[in-house]
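Reader question, answered in our methods column.
A reader sent in the components of a multi-part assembly and asked whether the whole thing could be modeled at once rather than chain by chain. We filled in our standard form and ran it. Here is what they sent:
COMPLEX SIZE: four components
ENTRIES:
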Amino acid sequence: GQLVSTLQSFFFPLEPQSGVNEEEAINLEEIREFAKNFKIRRLSLGLTQTQVGQALTATEGPAYSQSAICRFEKLDITPKSAQKLKPVLERWLAEAELWNQKGQQNLMEFVGGEPSKKRKRRTSFTPQAIEVLNTYFDKNSLPTGQEITEIAKELNYDREVVRVWFCNRRQTLKNTSKINAFQAH
Amino acid sequence: GQLVSTLQSFFFPLEPQSGVNEEEAINLEEIREFAKNFKIRRLSLGLTQTQVGQALTATEGPAYSQSAICRFEKLDITPKSAQKLKPVLERWLAEAELWNQKGQQNLMEFVGGEPSKKRKRRTSFTPQAIEVLNTYFDKNSLPTGQEITEIAKELNYDREVVRVWFCNRRQTLKNTSKINAFQAH
DNA sequence: AGCATAAATAATAA
DNA sequence: TTATTATTTATGCT
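And here is the structure of the entire assembly that came back:
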């Protein structure tokens, strides 16, 4: 049994809860509605969870991580936390939408990110580099930061690019190795 | 120079285009509006580009890849292609929204994906498994590929999962001992 | 024309 | 919350 229930279990109880009065129920339903709406409105503004978190951290008191926004949207938090967070998000989002109406540039300024952060150009690795990377990967698919730095230096690629290469390589491996698909866990 | 212009360059020309009549301009603006709207509506339905592409491939004639949907949303295609694709997407999306109103289950059925394809859960090790892993780790923190395979077999876990456990365990050790605190990651 | 995969974003075990 | 995994989006390439 759990001592602390999450909103999920409040909203979708396995059985009808007795002893929950009408007022509380409405309140929770309200939060659920808002959470769903919040995500849509956030996406409509073209904002990421990270951006919202960073912007809130800047304007509001405490720190809000990307994870916190994610958990709110999925209602994977206690009702009490959600109750507390809801008005903060509501107010902030409304203001963001206001800025957006005046032009997207204003929104971006409000959010605090660089005005025109462009996506990084897709890197093309040379066949030689791929070969070297694969050799390292076979030895250790999860190199340490230090190791990544060294590999990047050796191949004369951006460190971040090498790091991401390992991330994606691990991913590909998992997706391909369906051999252990029937393992129970 | 490019031989084939994309919508991007049509919509945001570096200089005002002369010789473009009013009717054409309105039409292009319409597509731009729709593309923006399409994305928001798609996200509101909680659908991915991949899902849309697959669903379209199933119901409409030709094949639509995730890339195609992506390129339409970003208008990284020729006006002619966009013109052609727009009504198809419009019709499909309207129908999808209709199904969604009848319940999300219906939408998922319409889209054709598995009704409740859940995200793969992150591995949790049992206390017993942790204990065995720690015993191995104390003996050798950097097992060979062969050794990892054997441990995985013994514990009946995915080999990759075991390999990563060792990586993480080594990492944790490093982090705890603060010596390498400045190692980038 | 779209595959393969790099990059970005969301979700989550610890 | 942090640090990582899982998922989605975007794009280089032929």
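What stands out: Chain B is about 65% helix and 0% strand. The two ends of chain B are 41 Å apart (CA to CA).
Send us your own complexes using the same form.
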